[in-house]
Amino acid sequence: MNRAPLGPFHLAIPVDDLEAARSFYGGVLGCAEGRSAPQWIDFDFFGHQLVCHLAPAAHSADGSLRNAVDGHGVPVPHFGMVLDPAAFEKTRERLTAAAIPFDVEPHVRFRGQPGEQATMFVRDPAGNAVEFKALADPDQLFAR
């Protein structure tokens, strides 16, 4: 599949506690912190720009909205990263060591099918759902 070279994406999410976001993204996940102000923090999220904006009234993630994907209830909305298998395992270990509960436990989805992938979901301290995945064959990211 021919794809255009990927550049870093920019994503801004609401959080209700900047220090908790700093602890989770910076501490647990090891994302370097960039610019910040009293109302927001930039993080280097695996080479992409993630901005946590203080917006407590805007956030009401109760986790109840889900779609079934390969037998698991996937939280909607969510965002995340496609990692190589070694980085996926390192991230799983970091989350486990920090006692971050899995919203969807690490497992292999679409086993034996196009797009086979390891996946796991966690919630950041503000309740945002974050997915990490690693494909058995990275060229299958958009496979049908």
UniProtKB/TrEMBL annotation:
Superkingdom of the organism of origin: Bacteria
VOC domain span: 7-135
Classification via InterPro entries = Glyas_Bleomycin-R_OHBP_Dase, Glyas_Fos-R_dOase_dom, VOC_core
Gene3D superfamilies the record matches: 2,3-Dihydroxybiphenyl 1,2-Dioxygenase, domain 1
Q: Write down what this protein is called.
A: VOC family protein
